[in-house]
Amino acid sequence: MDATWNWSAPPRYALSIGGVVIVTVLLTQLPALHETTISMIYLVVVLISATTIGLVPAILASVLSFLAINFFFVPPLHTLAVADPQDIVKLLTFLVVGVIASTLASRAREQANTAQRSATELAALYGLSQTLGAEVSLDRALPLLAQTTIQLVSVPSCAILIYDENGFLSQRALAGAQPSEPTRNVDIFLRIGARVLGVLRVAQRSLQEELAPAEHERLEMIATQVVLVLERARLVDEASRARALAEAERVKGTLFASVSHDLRTPLAVIKGTVTDLLDDAVARERPAQREMLEAVNDEADRLNRLVGNLLEMSRIESGSYYPARNSQDVGELIGNVVARLRSQLARHPITVDIPAELPPVQISYMHIDQVLTNLLENAASYTPDGTPIVVRAAADDTQIEVTVWDRGPGIPEGLYARIFEKFVRVADSERHANGAGLGLAICKGIIEAHGGRIWAESAPGGGAQFVFTLPTVAVPAARPLAGRQL
Predict the structure, then answer these.
(1) How far is C-alpha 198 from the chain's CA centre?
(2) What pTM, to 2 d.p., does this model score?
(3) How far is CA 336 from CA 260, 331, 365, 389, 423, in A?
């Protein structure tokens, strides 16, 4: 097949023959023209054939034009005999010029087509490299490479197969469809040095039509791009693991630094108080003993909350956090939490603003109780005595919104985005707060596991307010949070 045209041979030859026939009919109907003019007209037909339908049809047009000039325009007419020897030279010269012109014109056309194809391929490869530069996910990059292979090499299908950790080839991307007729696959190995990462596999167009050397070169070029994508994905994965290890070490160090003090303080109080109580040399009145025992009880509760927060945070980040839910009245839950914390909130005027009718929600009572407890204790710890704390609830068609509002110093502007991260506490009031800075991170994990949102914002008139939502419509009973950094 001629590289400059994709038609099958019979239509191209028919066009070549038809062009010569049409010109011959027109010239025989015109007044007598000079032989040179006639030759030039036929040469135009030959050149048009060479530049449009290929070399072989153009040579056929040259031979037919040679015969037509001889038969219709060179004496004696209507015969292939030639009376004048000079006419023989003219005819042979025309034939040679026609063949040479056909060859040159066809070659120029083929070079132009090759240059155009190369420019198109380079543009496609450049666009591909630009696109791949922004892609770090193999699930998106490999299908794009497979689709580009089909376009650049004109094959019916392309598959990218990668060796897994067990040494088996697994298909990671597929574009196109395998031909219905029997065909042969061409495999290009994806190598880095002596190491083989996988295979770029394409299907030939047919058993008889093998891929050209230029198409093999394109496949090798695309295979190089696949290798670069695989290597980059490996490096990104290694960098991610390195960052995760560094973050784990940082978190571990922060945990030890933060928790060691918070664990030591209640233990020291409990140890000192119990030692005093066991000292028989010191006589104490019953009220004094009760006060000391209440201090031990409070510090034990504080220690229990701290350990519980650590365990809760561990469950949330491990992905094993699946709170069981049932229908609950949020208004009643808020009232119960405020009543239970009455002694801890005694130094703050408490206002509870709850509508008479709130729709029931599917929640874990214990966990939402924990969220409200953390938010109210947080408000009491970070605000001056005597400042009010307000708990509001409102509902619409899709969710219930609960707000815990205080008139304290508020949250510094730069901490709004980070306040729900682990071990983050408001710096200005940090010396007044107990705990390891896990309470808000736990609140975030619990609310998101229930399908809601939680955020902090400035309160109108000063202070801060923490808002969380709970959907009134059913949501999946389990939302794993593995790998999430809260």
Answers:
(1) 22
(2) 0.45
(3) 33, 9, 11, 16, 28
